[in-house]
Amino acid sequence: MSFPQTPAPAVPGAFLNTPAVASRFNAEMQQDPVRRLLFASPRSVSFAEGQPGTPGAQSMTQPRSQQGIQAGSQPSSQPSIFGQDPVPSSTSALRASTSASDDAVMRASQLASTASQPPLAKAANFINNALTEDEHYPELDSYCRQISSDYDLTLVDSPWAPFQKISNFEIPQNVFAQYERAEVETGMGLFAEINHAWVTIDNCLYLWDYTHPNPDLIGYEDSQQRITAVKLVAPKPGVFNDVISHVLVVSTEGEMILLGVSVNLNPSGTKNVELYGTTLALKSATASHIAGSATGRIFYTGGTTDCDIYELYYQQEEKWFSSRTGKLNHSQPGWTSVVPKPTQIWGRAATEHVVALVIDDSRNLLYSLSNLSTVRTYHIEGPNKLTKVIEKTKSDFLRDIAHAMSVQSPLLGEHMEIVSISPVSVTEDNKVHLMALTNTGCRLFMSATSASSYMMGSSSGAPQSMQLQAIKFPPPEAGQKRPRTSPFSGPGETINVSSRALESSRRGIRFPPGYFLDFVRKPDDPHDLLFISAPDTGRIKNHSRSQMPKLYEQANWIELKGTVQDVGLITKPFSATNQPLGFGNELAVQFDSPDGSEFAVLTNTGVNIIRRRRLVDIFASAIRTTVGDEGLKAEVSKFQNAYGRVETITAALAVACRQGDNGRFGLGRAAIDQATLDRARQVFINYGGSPMLPEQDGQPATVEMVRPSSRHGAITLYLSRLIRSLWKSKVISVSSNSAGALAIDSPIPQPKLREVQDCVIALRNFLNDNRSFIQGLSGPSDLRRAASKQEELAFQGEHQAMHAVELLMTDITEGISFVMTMFEERVVDIYARLDETSRQELRGLTYERLFSQAPGKELAKVLVKAIVNRNIENGSNVETVADALRRKCGSFCSADDVVVFKAQEQLKRASEAAININVSRNLLFESLRHFQKVAGSLTQANLEAAIRQYIELRYYAGAIQLCLSVAEAKDRGKTALYWMNDGSPAGDPRAKAFDQRKLCYDLIHEVLLELDVASGKEPEMVDGKPTLIATKRAEAYDVVNNSMDEVFHQDLYDWYIKQGWTERLLGIESPYITTFLRRLASKDAAHAELLCRFYTMRTMYFDAAKVQSELAKSDFKLSIKERINLLSRAKTNASVMTAGVSRQEQQLLNHDVTELLDVANIQDDLLERLLADSRIPAERKPEIEAALDGEIQSLSDLFNQYADQAGYYDLCLVIYHVADFRNPTTIAQTWTSLIQQTHDEISEQLASYNAERQQRGTASDEGPPQPYETLIARIEDICHRSSKDSFVFPVPTLMPEVCRYATEYAQDGRIGADVNWPINLFLHLGVSHDLVVRVLETMYEAQEIPFRGAGRARIVEWVCHAVGLWVRDLGRHGRPEARLEPWVGELMAECDNWASANARGTNEGGSDPRDLARAVKEVRRAVDGLVVSPLTNRSMGFF
Fold it and tell me: Using CA atoms, how far apart are residues 519 and 508, in angstroms rounded to an integer?
């Protein structure tokens, strides 16, 4: 239940150990009017200083479906960016208040442009201001100071889900094989930092790489005693050699053993782990929990009888008074460790022991948690000292909780137990030290203080007291109403303090900056559930300045399907900065570290990988699932309310640049569907706002005063986050290698530089592609929309700001290319050729200076000259060198070698920067001509070197032509082609010729890959003309497409298939492509499907239908549903006219496909029915599935072996229709069996339901349908599937049978059914009124059981109903010529006479006989008016 929260009583602040925390448990900041503001808040000194608050953000405690844009919530003194911008009509209805972060970004953009600056300097200020704003993200202490139960809880498959399970690695079988040998005890755990898991089986320890599909076990089996604990810790400096990166502590029942661990990264990205014996062991020691500090100290607890903390120390060599290993008892030092404790003498009811041991290296603190919920804090001092400084018992916790809360919570009572503790580092927050989790799911945030912390200038010292800082209660339970809170509510807001959603929490852990994983065990579920939450960074950053920051959290549940054994952080610990201010800003690093944080959760079934989703991923998923413009508008409104306008537009821009997650497992982040890209582009363009020109007090307005739009702020913010790791970093780092020589490295790895460059290029391409739609980039068209001088100035300022950022992006991409080129050369040689001044400038050069400042540009010119001079100095005359070699040793330098040397020299000259483009191209052409002369003798090394140089010089066409020439020269007899045409037999000597060609073709593949990468970085068209890279691409593919080398084409198409470039393959127009696809189609179903697409794209529908039909009939491993899909598509293609195909051929194919499709549908129905049939034994079902879920069977087999034997009479009738079976007796018997079977099945279900309802007393769900309802559905289905076949659907035979069933089995008013349902059924199926009435007339006259005697009342009632509907149908159309035959009137007269004569009879289950008589008379009168008169042949009117 929820209680209203009241302010906590004031805590005195005059004592050292009880610091006062003002309003730390209030939901909103309550300003004390008496209190004097002595110091300005750091948050108040910002670019938006002096602007009033804008409390327009809606509370996220509401469900997202209930959130919307708040209109009119903005003070009039603050101009609304959303409300006053002249935006397009599609967004004119949107209103939102400017958030604090938005205001800061926009004010920062304005201040950056107040003074006239060069464009690059202005853009650099934009970047610096955006980075500064990100760095001012609130500290943890500022928003974790209250009691809260706020969660934005979503489903795991919701687009807003903050976490997702991305993969699951099962435990290898060889681990289970070892597990089967266990005799005493086993244990499991994770070493997530090295991607390994471990298991202990009695006295053996095994490790394996859980990311490997078939890992090898790394075992330690030398111990003779049972293993009790395992821990991976950091080694002490100077004890082991550099190979050892970790120390593995293995505790057994008699000793503790230290093993060296070496971790190496393989080229594939996996980690190779090796164990080394160290001969370091501590005898007569055992541990239950182990913890290691960053300095290499190892602490442990001895068992389950005490709470003593021991330390295992080790050193490289023995000393006079100490051995290589030993232990220290820090809890009972000296002689007290050997004196028996009072509890050991007298005993006590409950033995206290340690259940958790964690270390905070940033504060040098060790925390222990006992089974009695006592937390002890130890200060790690000196090399071997550990001092207990705080002991906080369960009673202390309860006292703090009672002091903090004004109401009592059932979750925090005497039954409460603390199950886990997690430290909070000093880098994350200065005040919050520890998070404790209770078994009821409550999180207790504790802060510790010391006397020294109040002394001026003191920042060190052990804490002396620990206080409760905040409480986070569990989220609401399922079905429980969430308390509504208002952004302006104060002490009266409600907090749910009684939710048992997280009960019972087995264990939990917190990772920075607040990722919380809670493993919950429900009483009715043997598996653990993972509740995982994280701070909603965007909302915390976007909080209004008039309110106290809150701990907004996003959360969702994840099913683990197992019992949790361990959890670990796979990625690096999160830290946006190295200080509390800005530490937790996930938004700042979401593009700089795109993979985010990932966690490994080990269960008894495997390892689950959980990933934290970025805001951009959530945005991409949210807009992907919206429907229509209104849905997109509503989703954007939610984001703007929660995260602000600039942050929302930034997310849209990132998604448009392919940053967002695709939402599908197994695809990369860049694989976003086009619809999502288009919606993100729409959001960025339509919702980005307009620039503003603030009102000036009598001063003339200038362009520099313009505040750019949110769209510009989004571009700046996105760009700043892309380059945040580069911006302040040095370009080079100078050091010495092991030999003492000069070594120069890049502080930023080369892959990171390429990644940033690709992202910036993608941003540039997006802006260029949409330039005409983006305000500020569309040029003069913006000015034409200006309605006033102020708007014109605003548009000019926007354009200048956009232009500045564009220039900076261009310099960033070119600057990164320059840095990478410099490191590709020998940067040490370049550094040596510089003067001392340039060397000093290069050592201090940052990317910011290189990208945006004039001194950096000047230094870049000096470096370019040094690179050019180095190449010139290293060059020589090739002909001179070649002649000298030939004179001295001619056998080593042939005439072909001289030609190669000449070609290499021309390549070298072509690469010189001083040569113009035409001369360079001529040199490249001459080098190609020389290489082609000696293609037959060109070595593979020379060929690869030439190709690399051609790629560097972007001479892609020449590189491809050279490879083709060499391949042709090495196989002039076309041996490889003959070998391929013969089916590529293995062991054939002709395969060597193909292998030689393949080496050349592989180089062509590399050239094409490099060409695609290069062309992707630049636009294809500029000002309507193809760019240079587009021309080069066209030239290269002309060489490829015009090649007459058939072997090359076949290899190229195979490579396209392997690369997944099917679209490129389908777009090829070549005489070899059809042959290639036909050859593949005969081997693989996927390739046959590719051939169908090829035919379809060329409007060859008939050929596509033939391929699909043959594929459906093939023996490929295809399911029956896949074959039905193929036949459906084949039917569609066969129905389309194809040029060159006669109508007769088309109709014949269409007929065959249709018949086969009908059979396949019957087979699919049989398969599903048989698998769900409880009569069939479980061991028989796999055999049935193997037989039916594959090739299409004959109708005879389906009927005789399955449908008839199983008694599926409805399918038997469909088979009669497809097989054109016309035996009326068999069909009638089948219908009778179907009716009886349907009634028996439903009656049995009803009996079971009624018995269960009587047993329970009430029915919790809806009961099964009545038998007649199920029969109606089955008859309708058969009618539709048989296309109303008169043989399979014989109305004169079937209708009396249905009517007889309805009467004999009381399927009428006695069970609440419509007595006329048989008549309505056949009329609904399209049977004419005439036929229905004639069948009823026959039944009336036959007087068969049960329609004999009083039973004829039912026939009369049906006749009355059918004729009445007939009359209404004629009257509805209103045709004057509508008439009825005389026999209808005669029939009604007989019915009227009978009904009048038996008005006092009975009609059980039908209408009252007297009512029936009246109804018959009315219908008779209406019929008399429509019956054709034999004398006058005139109608008497309409009913």
Answer: 6
Secondary structure string (H, E, C) spanning 8-58? CCCCCCCCCCCCCCCCCCCCCCCCCCCCCCCCCCHHHCCCCCCCCCCCCCC
- The type of residue at 94 is L
pLDDT tens digits along 633-665:
999 999 999 999 999 999 999 999 988 764 444
DSSP 3-state assignment of 1024? coil
Residues 1200, 1232 contacting (CB under 8 angstroms) = no
Pairing of strands 196-201, 186-191: antiparallel
Residues 6+ apart with CB under 8 A from 34: none
**Cα(93)–Cα(79) distance, integer angstroms:** 17
CA–CA gap between residue 659 and residue 621 (Å, rounded): 12
Residue 148 to residue 151: CA distance in whole angstroms: 9
In this predicted structure, what is the pLDDT of residue 865?
A: 58
**Distances, alpha carbon 1003 to alpha carbons 244, 605, 626, 1010, in Å:** 41, 45, 45, 11
Q: Which residues pair with 154 in a beta bridge?
A: 556
- Per-residue pLDDT, 364: 93
CA distance 267 to 272: 10
3-state helix vs strand vs coil in the chain, percent to 5 = 45, 15, 40
- Contact indicator for 690, 87 with CB cutoff of 8 Å: yes
Residue in this structure with the two tokens 């004419």, named with its chain if needed = 1328
| Rounded Cα–Cα distance for residues 580 and 427 (Å) | 5
- DSSP 3-state of 511: strand
pLDDT value of residue 320: 61
Token output for 705: 């005063």
Tens of pLDDT, residues 126-177: 999 999 999 989 999 888 888 888 899 999 889 999 999 999 999 888 888 8
Neighbouring CB atoms inside 10 A of 10's CB total 10
Tell me the CA distances in angstroms from 654 to 133, 669, 680, 718, 864, one per residue in order: 19, 12, 8, 7, 34
Secondary structure (3-state) at 243: coil
Instruction: Output the CA angle 665-670-676, nearest 5 degrees.
Output: 85
Give me the residues of the chain with pLDDT under 50, please: 1-98, 111-114, 335-339, 343-349, 454-459, 484-492, 662-670, 868, 872, 876-878, 880-882, 884-885, 887-893, 1431-1439
- CB burial of 831-861 (b: ≥16 within 10 Å; e: otherwise) equals bebbeeebeebbeebbbbbbbbbeebeebbe
d(CA 536, CA 519): 21
In whole angstroms, what is the distance from residue 726 CA to residue 729 CA?
Answer: 5
**Residue 340 DSSP symbol:** P
Q: Transcribe 752-764 into DSSP letters.
A: HHHHHHHHHHHHH
Tokens of 330: 């820090």
pTM across the whole model = 0.58
* Predicted pLDDT at 580: 92
Provide the pairing of β-strand 465-472 with 147-148: parallel
Q: What is the pLDDT of residue 59?
A: 37
CA distance 602 to 598: 13
Q: How far from 171 is each of 168, 529, 671, 1337, CA to CA, in Å?
A: 10, 19, 30, 74
Report d(CA 305, CA 68) in Å as an integer: 58
523-to-502, 503, 505, 527 alpha-carbon distances in Å? 12, 9, 11, 10
The per-residue pLDDT for 847 is 92
How deeply is 1411 buried, as exposed, middle or buried, from its count of CB atoms within 10 A (0-12, 13-18, 19+)? middle
Model pLDDT, residue 125: 93
Q: What are phi and psi of 795, to 5 degrees?
A: -65, -35
Asked whether 272 and 211 are in contact (CB, 8 A), the reply is: no
